[in-house]
């Protein structure tokens, strides 16, 4: 039986979300493919988090590990954090500063834009081993994301079908982002936590101003006294 026929949306409409969409592994896999790896732009970082050429940080597109760098050209770049050799994580730390990205497994070295620069023992040792003559560095770089900025916000996508970032965000949402992030934000620090739940619960919670209104109401002394 297909997922479509099994999952009946309640007749009441979008305000009645079946609990199953928060727990079904098949739905989750489709979300990873269609949303996080699909034709969408995902927030990666604030540009100010990588002020100097050589700064890098690691993040995720869904479950796909990603490196974001400030290249020597001053531009922002992003690539999948999986070595082109055997898939090892290239950057192990949350953030750092480096001249290049070197995989700890067999020392394949990439530049800050994800291009493969060198391979250990490429010519072998004493005439033995090494890569075949047909091996070309330019065929084995890290998988690159499209990267674009909306003000200080840096977004990335693995999809060539995602529309230009400005069109994707649109004028209405864009004007609201500009209102909140007017000027250049000063980064005081960062914090993160792991939530053991489906990603949609958090997204929905931060869009749920119903509870925020209640908090404000109950924090007013007159409201508490009734
Ligand atoms: S897995 Fe990265 S160099 Fe081998």
Layout of SSEs?
Layout: H1 3-6, H2 25-36, E1 42-46, E2 55-61, E3 64-70, E4 76-80, E5 95-97, E6 101-102, E7 109-110, E8 116-118, E9 146-150, E10 153-157, H3 165-180, H4 199-206, H5 209-219, H6 221-225
This protein binds FE2/S2 (inorganic) cluster (FES).
Explain this structure to me?
It is a single chain. The chain is globular and about 75 Å long. It has 2 domains: 3-36 and 193-225, no CATH class; 44-155, Rieske Iron-sulfur Protein (3-layer Sandwich), CATH 2.102.10.10. A hairpin with a 5-residue loop joins strand 3 and strand 4 (76-80). By secondary structure, it is α+β, with helices and mostly antiparallel strands. Helix content is 25%, strand content 19%. It has a 4-stranded antiparallel sheet, with no helix packed on it. A 3-stranded antiparallel sheet has the order 1-10-9, with helices on one face. A 3-stranded antiparallel sheet has the order 6-7-8, with no helix packed on it. The protein is built from 6 helices and 10 strands, in the order H-H-E-E-E-E-E-E-E-E-E-E-H-H-H-H. The structure holds FE2/S2 (inorganic) cluster. FE2/S2 (inorganic) cluster is lined by residues 83, 85-86, 88, 103, 105-108.
């Amino acid at each position: 039986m297909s997922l479509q026929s099994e999952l009946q949306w309640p007749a009441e409409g979008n305000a009645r979300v079946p609990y199953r969409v928060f727990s079904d592994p098949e739905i989750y896999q489709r979300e990873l493919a269609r949303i996080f790896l699909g034709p969408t732009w995902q927030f990666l970082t604030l540009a100010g988090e990588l002020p100097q050429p050589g700064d890098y940080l690691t993040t995720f597109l869904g479950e796909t590990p990603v490196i974001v760098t400030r290249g020597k050209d001053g531009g922002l770049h992003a690539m999948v954090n999986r070595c082109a050799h055997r898939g090892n994580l290239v950057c192990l730390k949350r953030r750092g500063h480096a001249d290049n990205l070197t995989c700890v497994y067999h020392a394949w070295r990439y530049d800050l834009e994800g291009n493969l620069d060198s391979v250990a023992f490429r010519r072998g040792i004493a005439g033995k081993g090494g890569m075949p003559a047909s091996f070309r560095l330019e065929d084995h770089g890290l998988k690159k994301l499209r990267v674009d900025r909306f003000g200080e916000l840096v977004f990335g996508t693995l999809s060539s079908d995602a529309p230009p970032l400005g069109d994707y965000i649109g004028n209405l949402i864009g004007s609201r982002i500009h209102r909140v992030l007017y000027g250049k934000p000063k980064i005081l620090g960062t914090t993160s936590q792991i939530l053991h739940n489906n990603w949609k619960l958090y997204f929905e919670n931060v869009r749920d101003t119903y509870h925020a209104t209640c908090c404000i109401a109950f924090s007013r002394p007159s409201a508490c006294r009734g």
